[in-house]
């Protein structure tokens, strides 16, 4: 290796140092009065703002001002507090808590401060500073939800459709498949990504085990979902402040895509753990506790976060006027973008009337309710169709799906009611029996394994068979096999039907083709039944 | 000091200041409180004695009388006795410190803490004064400290504001700029 000359070294240094201002500046400071439990009380900082970032001892540790009191400021630390001592100097940064967001973040796992934690290099490309706390777009800059967001889950896309810009809550007990629905939704966006119209996904993990996060990232990588996904992880060992700010970091990343005219989906997994960490910080800051010891502004914490999910107006010049746009992305603003939020809330023993679940239910535009009873009965995804709703997604549902699955929700609710009756063993009239038969088959159709989102055209095909009673002669336990066979047949022999369904055209021709296909594919299943009899 | 004590000390100091102004003993009281601060900061046992609930109040008053009776203004002695009576004797040192800064603020003097790596020489002193002039229009009084850890240059601290022209801080900023961790 050739040796470097001193002149070369000084030339490199000079180049690196070009534009660096060495002159001292006047800074505003404070002194640490008290430190502990991730909270610092600071004396001084007379002109500081609430929500401003502060630096400790010039060694990179930052904090955010949450309380401004008569003669001290309450600060939450975003890192390890062991190196801080009483009497240390704290400096104002002059900027609100924010993170650097850019395209380079896609495919990466970052922490609440936007720093990569996946062991890879710094995210490449330009970074734009996005504030963690930002006011949601006003009414002028929004438009109603009108584009569907396909989750690839039959039960959701058929009965609880989600639109882009909607806030749909996933709620249920532990181990009922809440995260799986979110992950399936992310995986389902791969098709859009391949088409060149990506829905960028942000998965925010709050207070979960590091191994769980690693597992989720592994699954996303396996199914090719990472190129359009950012994972924000604040695991259980992180300070409480990092955990409760994590969803805000996720929202800031999502807003970058939303405000630049693109579509984004953000999953907050989960808000009950975030509320717990916020409660911890609030109590340590001596804010008065309220119901279940949560602070008074716990509702506002969630409502301001979820309000940031929006469908932005299509017109570029109105979008340009949008409120609270960060200066860093002002030159890139475009209309027509959206940010869809899927918060997750965990209930205890199915109790949806607890504080956080009721709050988040009332904030969101609908909920997907998962039940452990259904999960254990083998109905997966364990969605309770009766109590799950989507208040705005119906407008965004593709018309073909609306035609096919329009009455499905009511049919299934009726089936659930009659099912309870049929258990008495009394004789049933043919009409009731027909409802029961159809309902049982529809339940089978709606079952779906993990990590296998179904394209919308295939969903419509099988749901059409279910809604038209084309499965009546097929035994319930053979419905799954029939579905597989039907899809295989359609892909091979009737690609035109699938194509026209994917283009949202459902006419008589398509209907006839589907009926014929169902008859043909169903033949062997029927024969089997007859021989068995 | 805990921030609750800090708040208390400030309030007691403010009360004494208005009393001193009213009785026209500002200069005398300043010197007395300075003396009190020196005694309290050098003799920790006095603080322990004043804080102790075991020692009777009359004894505490006697000790204060013997120590300060002939040296301080009677009003200041009476003030000390009231503070001890209210069981805030341990705050006397903090109150004295707050009183000194409150007095200076009242007189329009800004105390600037000047830290240098070596004992202050004329050229650094001039530079520091020039920098301090930009920070305040008030009369400036330097409180000098020597801290070799700052390597060179000087650091000015005035209330919440900090003007760090030390070599140490410049090196930290260069390090950050070059992305060295």
Question: Topology of this structure?
Answer:
The complex is a heterodimer of chains A (533) and B (181).
Chain A: H1 6-17, E1 26-36, E2 39-44, E3 52-56, E4 61-68, E5 73-77, E6 89-96, E7 98-101, E8 109-110, E9 128-131, H2 154-159, E10 169-172, H3 178-188, H4 190-195, E11 199-206, H5 210-222, E12 229-234, H6 240-259, E13 263-269, H7 271-284, H8 298-306, H9 316-319, E14 338-346, H10 355-363, E15 366-370, H11 372-376, E16 389-390, H12 399-405, H13 408-422, H14 430-446, H15 456-467, H16 479-493, H17 495-502, H18 508-532
Helix pairs in contact in A: 6-7, 8-10, 12-15, 13-14, 14-15, 15-17, 16-18
Chain B: H1 3-22, H2 26-42, H3 44-51, H4 57-68, H5 74-85, H6 92-106, E1 109-116, H7 122-135, E2 139-146, E3 153-158, E4 161-166, H8 167-177
Helix pairs in contact in B: 1-6, 2-6, 4-5
Q: Return the CATH architecture of the largest domain in chain B.
A: Orthogonal Bundle
Largest interface: A-B, 25 and 25 residues
CATH level-4 homologous superfamily of the largest domain in chain B: N-terminal domain of the delta subunit of the F1F0-ATP synthase
Determine the strand fraction of chain B and express it as a percent band. 15-25%
Tell me how many strands of chain B there are. 4
Rough outline of chain B: elongated
- What is the molecular shape of chain A? elongated
- The percent of residues in helical segments of chain A reads 25-40%
Supply the number of helical segments of chain A. 18
**Total of DSSP H or I helical runs spanning 4+ residues of chain B:** 8
Approximate helicity band of chain B? 55-70%
- The class by helix and strand makeup of chain A works out as alpha/beta
